[in-house]
Design goal:
14 helices, NAD, alpha/beta, six-stranded mixed beta sheet, Aldehyde_DH_NAD(P), Aldehyde dehydrogenase, Ald_DH_C, Aldehyde Dehydrogenase, Chain A, domain 1, 2 domains, binds nicotinamide-adenine-dinucleotide, 17 strands, Aldehyde Dehydrogenase, Chain A, domain 2, Aldehyde_DH_dom, about 475 residues
Length: about 475
């Protein structure tokens, strides 16, 4: 498969923005029938082209087919169709009663914010491009979608399919790298939805601030795992490695490192090693294995560099293949300041950090910026409450990893350094929606008798 990706000419970007604005002003994207039809088209785009899209993702990331189906194609086809079914409910205006003024006619209208810009990263090139778009279409917002240039095959296939299924006067896919995205960011959007790393997140936030454009930042960071010594280490090992093995650890909420009371480190490490042997009996890098590859040689070298500098002990894995294969690798006795804890690993390396006890693990978590997801393995309800009350993060998942992404009915988003704003289900819709309150005052209702019009009466309020 060719990796050549045709970039959208920079001089066309302002024109695209103008076209989408004209479409929005015309009211074309407002009717629910239009939104429903576009959402169903988006669902069809994924379902009818699953083989072509899947082949492109394999060419970019060498992900196993089942992983692509379960994490990219099925959820996107389903969620777009679900959103189409939910439009009546989501968009229904609300009529709050105003205390003491029952005759006032107040309506909370759910109106589209306007024309949106969606910028996506490479690690889930279908899911992270389509998921925010579902929200934009559901809300009645036209959008420019800018997928990652790092997944050239997927971005090219999506660019070919979008105009075949979606209304190009409202939804345009722009391909490009930094110069094209920089140019897009100069334009006055009504919402920017960015998914990617925090460094670019700051660039996006700065550009948006110039136009006071509201933004959603879906960023990354280190997602720590706290393990209660009383928890079953075999179950913990299996569930931690599920989240670390998917997409070879290149997931925003992959477990980054594990904080385990020192007396349980050896038992956990043994369970992790046994699990990896079960998951990949012939080794993860075996051609028949269900294990993906690193996106490109740059990221491969970055991860290799972290491993070379670690002061911890590599107790499993460490093998590489070519310029993109890195075996799942367990490193124990990792201490604060280690290379593996400098930043989000975004690869298949799992550092184990021994701590004195769970309280020290909680203190550790609180010394770092808020994670996208904090994980904890414990059956102790009091400890769960303590972790919920005494830590902060985008989300909190007990006793599994990654599964919070499958709960589409709940909001997903970061907090602080891991981003802000929400997506999934109705929350994606809300992200692109402005709550526009209207008040229609009945002509026979006097708002505050004695106060509204001068001269004010005396003794109107007894306070
Ligand atoms: P990436 O390199 O593909 O970049 C993301 C997007 O930003 C691309 O579309 C790219 O063109 C654009 N971009 C890159 N440099 C830019 C610049 N200087 N100016 C303007 N735009 C620029 O992907 P990435 O950032 O490496 O993605 C991985 C990161 O994304 C990780 O940190 C991961 O945790 C995070 N992530 C977060 C979520 C989430 O939902 N919170 C999901 C997936 C990934």
């Amino acid at each position: 498969m060719s990796t050549e990706l045709k970039y959208t000419p920079i001089d066309q970007l302002a024109k695209i923005h103008e076209t989408l604005n004209a479409t929005f002003r015309s009211g074309k994207t407002l009717p629910l029938d239009y939104r429903r039809q576009q959402l169903l088209q988006l669902s069809r785009l994924v379902a009818e082209n699953k083989d072509a899209i899947s082949a492109a993702v394999v060419a970019d990331l060498a992900k196993p087919q089942l992983e692509i189906l379960m994490t990219e194609l099925v959820p996107m086809a389903t969620r777009a169709a679900d959103a189409a079914k939910s439009l009546e409910e989501w968009t229904a205006p609300e009529k709050p009663a105003v205390a003491g003024h029952e005759s006032w006619n107040v309506t909370v209208n759910k109106v589209p914010k306007g024309v949106a810009l969606i910028i996506s990263p490479w690690n889930y090139p279908v899911h992270l491009t389509i998921s925010p778009l579902i929200g934009a279409i559901a809300a009645g917002c036209p959008a420019v979608i800018k997928p990652s240039e790092n997944t050239a095959n997927t971005s090219r296939v999506l660019a070919e399919l979008f105009p075949k299924y979606l209304d190009t006067s409202a939804y345009q896919l722009v391909n490009g790298g930094v110069p094209e995205t920089t140019e897009l960011l100069k334009l006055p959007w009504d919402h920017i939805f960015y998914t990617g790393n925090g460094t670019v997140g700051r660039i996006v936030a700065t550009a948006a601030a110039k136009h006071l454009t509201p933004i959603t930042l879906e960023l990354g960071g280190q997602c720590p795992v706290i393990v209660d010594p009383a928890y079953d280490m075999k179950i913990a090992a299996k569930r931690i490695l599920f989240g670390k093995g998917l997409n070879a650890g290149q997931i925003c909420n992959a477990p980054n490192h594990v904080l385990v009371p020192v007396e349980k480190q050896a038992e956990l490490v043994e369970a992790l090693k046994a699990t990896l042997k079960e998951f990949y009996p012939n080794g993860a890098l075996d051609k028949s294995s269900t294990y993906g590859r690193i996106i490109n040689p740059n990221h491969f070298r970055r991860i290799q560099g972290l491993l070379k500098r670690t002061q911890g002990e590599i107790v499993f894995g460490g093998a590489v293949e070519g310029e993109r294969g890195i075996e799942p690798t367990i490193v124990q006795n990792v201490k604060a300041g280690d290379s593996l804890l400098e930043d989000e690993i975004f690869g298949p390396i799992l550092p184990i950090v021994p701590v004195a006890n769970v309280d020290e693990a909680i203190e550790w978590v609180n010394r770092f910026p808020h994670a996208l997801t904090l994980y904890a393995f414990t059956e102790d309800e009091a400890l769960k409450k303590k972790i919920l009350a005494h830590t902060n993060s985008g989300g909190l998942t007990f006793n599994h990893t990654f599964m919070n992404l499958a709960a589409d009915e709940a909001p997903f988003g970061g907090h602080g350094a891991s981003g802000h704003g929400y997506q999934h289900g109705v929350y994606s819709y809300k992200t692109f929606t402005h709550l526009r309150t209207s008040l229609d005052m009945p002509s026979d209702a006097e708002a505050f008798p004695g106060f509204t019009y001068a001269p004010y009466a005396q003794g109107v309020v007894d306070y």
